[in-house]
Task: inverse folding
C-alpha cells in the first residue's frame, strides 16, 4: 500500500491524493484546484490545472465534498483520459454536477454544446453512495479495495472516507478526512467519529488555533452588523457559494427572528435590515440546500416545522443578473443605505465581491467581514492582514486604499479547529500508526503535529512530501 500526494501538502488548496494498492490499482481522493499563492509559479491556467501524474491505474475517483479546491481539476482529469466511476455521498452527487459545469464555463470553454457533452458524460460517471455503506472498487489486482463515506460536518454532503485495503483480519484501513467541520456547524450533523485506522490523512487548516463557540460567534456577527449599521454603511461579506453562504443565511435569519421588534441601530429596527445575496451560483446552491432538507440536522428541521424559513426569509433579497448587480453596487455606494451583502468570491480573487470592494473599500462607513479562511496570496488575505493598518490591496491591477473597517469571525470557517482535530484522533479506540497532515499552512500543520505527537506517542506524525 502506498499513498501519493498531488496537492494540498504545502498549503490548503489543490487537494488530490492517490491510494495505491499493489502495483496495478489506485484510487484518487479528490482532484481540486490550486488557488492564491499556491497557484503561483504554475504558469498559465492550463499548466496549473493539468494532471501531471499517470492515471493508467486509477480505478475510481472518490470525492469528499464539492468545494472547488477539492473537485476543480476533474474536467482536466477527464481530458487526461479518466473514465472510471466518481463516488460521493448522495447530497454531493446533486451538488457536484453544478460545480463542475460552472468550472467548465469559467476555466475551460464557453461552448455550450461542448459543455453539455462533457456534463452528460460526467453525470453517467457520478455514483452516489449512502453514508455508512461499503462500496467495492473494481480492481484488476488481487487486493480487494472498498470505501465508505461518513459524515464530516463541513458542508452538506461532505464526508471523510474509510478506505479498506484487503479483507478480514489482514485488512488495512486508511482514513482521508477531507475537510472536517465544527461540531456545531449550522444545518449540519457533527462529524462522525471513526473507531480507528492504520493511517490517517488529515486536514490541518486550523491546526494552530481554536474558534469561538457558536453562541459567541453569532453574538459577534450580530454586534458587527449593529455597529456597522450605525454608520449607515454596507456590511460586505465575501461568501463562498457552497456551505458558508447557506450557514450564514441560517444564522442571520435566527438573529433577525430573535430580535423581532428590537432596534438594530439608531432609527433602524431589526425587521428593517435587508440581507442581499448577490451570487447566482450561491442562490442556486441555496435552492439545492432547501431540496436536500432530509439531510439537515434536527435543529434546522425543527425550525421548519415551526413555520420558519431559514434559507428563504422575508428580509432576504437575491440579485440575479449582472446588470442588477452593477445597479446595486452603484446604489449602495451612492446612497449609503445600511444593508448586509453576501457577495460571490470568498477569497476576493474574483466574482461579484470585487466590484463591491472597489466601490466601498475607501469609505470608512463600510465594513468588510471575513468568515472564511483566506489563503496566502489572495486579495482576501491582503485585506484581512493590511486593512486594519490602513493599508491597500491590488484588485484587477489597480491599487485601492483600505479605509473600511475589517473584521474576522473565524468560527464560521466550517473547518474544525485545533481542538476538534485533536478530538477526532483522541476519540479513536484504535489510534493510527501514521498520521499525515495535509491541507494546512506550514505553521498550522507543524503546531498540530507537535500536539498529536504528545497525544499518540510512537505514532509517526508528519507533513508528507508532494508527488
Result:
Amino acid at each position: 500500500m502506498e499513498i501519493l500526494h498531488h496537492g494540498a501538502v504545502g498549503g490548503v488548496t489543490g487537494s488530490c491524493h492517490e491510494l495505491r494498492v499493489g502495483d496495478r490499482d489506485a484510487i484518487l481522493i479528490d482532484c481540486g484546484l490550486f488557488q492564491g499563492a499556491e497557484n503561483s509559479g504554475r504558469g498559465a491556467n492550463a499548466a496549473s490545472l493539468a494532471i501531471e501524474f499517470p492515471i493508467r491505474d486509477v480505478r475510481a475517483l472518490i470525492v469528499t465534498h464539492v468545494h472547488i479546491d477539492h473537485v476543480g481539476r476533474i474536467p482536466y482529469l477527464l481530458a487526461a483520459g479518466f473514465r472510471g466511476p466518481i463516488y460521493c455521498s448522495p447530497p454531493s452527487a446533486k451538488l457536484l454536477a453544478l460545480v463542475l459545469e460552472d468550472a467548465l464555463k469559467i476555466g475551460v470553454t464557453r461552448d455550450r454544446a461542448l459543455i453539455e457533452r462533457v456534463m452528460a458524460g460526467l453525470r453517467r460517471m457520478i455514483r452516489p453512495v449512502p453514508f455508512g455503506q461499503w462500496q467495492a472498487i473494481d480492481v484488476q489486482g488481487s487486493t480487494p479495495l472498498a470505501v465508505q463515506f461518513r459524515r464530516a460536518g463541513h458542508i452538506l454532503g461532505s464526508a471523510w472516507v474509510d478506505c479498506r485495503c484487503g479483507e478480514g483480519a489482514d485488512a488495512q484501513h486508511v482514513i482521508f478526512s477531507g475537510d472536517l467541520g465544527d461540531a456545531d456547524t449550522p444545518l449540519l450533523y457533527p462529524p462522525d467519529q471513526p473507531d480507528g485506522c492504520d493511517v490517517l490523512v488529515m486536514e490541518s487548516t486550523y491546526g494552530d488555533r481554536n474558534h469561538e463557540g457558536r453562541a459567541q460567534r453569532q453574538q459577534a456577527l450580530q454586534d458587527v452588523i449593529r455597529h456597522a449599521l450605525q454608520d449607515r454603511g454596507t456590511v460586505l461579506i465575501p461568501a463562498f457559494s457552497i456551505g458558508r453562504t447557506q450557514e450564514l443565511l441560517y444564522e442571520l435569519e435566527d438573529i433577525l427572528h430573535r430580535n423581532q421588534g428590537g432596534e438594530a441601530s439608531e432609527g433602524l429596527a431589526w425587521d428593517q435590515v435587508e440581507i442581499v445575496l448577490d451570487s447566482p451560483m450561491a442562490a442556486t446552491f441555496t435552492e439545492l440546500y432547501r431540496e436536500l432538507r432530509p439531510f439537515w440536522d434536527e435543529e434546522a428541521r425543527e425550525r421548519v416545522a415551526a413555520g420558519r424559513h431559514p434559507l428563504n426569509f422575508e428580509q432576504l433579497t437575491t440579485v440575479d443578473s449582472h446588470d442588477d448587480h452593477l445597479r446595486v453596487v452603484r446604489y449602495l455606494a451612492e446612497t449609503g443605505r445600511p444593508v448586509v451583502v453576501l457577495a460571490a468570491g470568498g477569497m476576493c480573487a474574483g466574482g461579484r465581491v470585487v466590484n463591491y470592494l472597489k466601490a466601498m473599500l475607501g469609505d470608512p462607513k463600510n465594513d468588510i467581514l471575513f468568515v472564511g479562511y483566506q489563503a496566502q496570496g489572495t486579495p482576501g488575505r491582503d485585506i484581512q492582514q493590511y486593512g486594519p493598518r490602513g493599508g491597500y490591496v491590488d484588485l484587477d491591477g489597480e491599487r485601492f486604499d483600505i479605509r473600511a473597517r475589517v473584521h474576522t469571525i473565524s468560527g464560521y470557517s466550517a473547518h474544525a479547529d485545533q481542538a476538534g482535530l485533536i478530538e477526532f484522533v483522541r476519540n479513536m479506540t484504535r489510534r493510527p500508526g501514521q498520521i499525515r497532515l495535509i491541507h494546512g499552512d506550514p505553521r498550522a500543520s507543524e503546531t498540530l503535529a507537535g500536539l498529536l505527537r504528545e497525544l499518540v506517542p510512537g505514532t509517526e506524525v508528519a507533513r508528507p512530501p508532494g508527488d
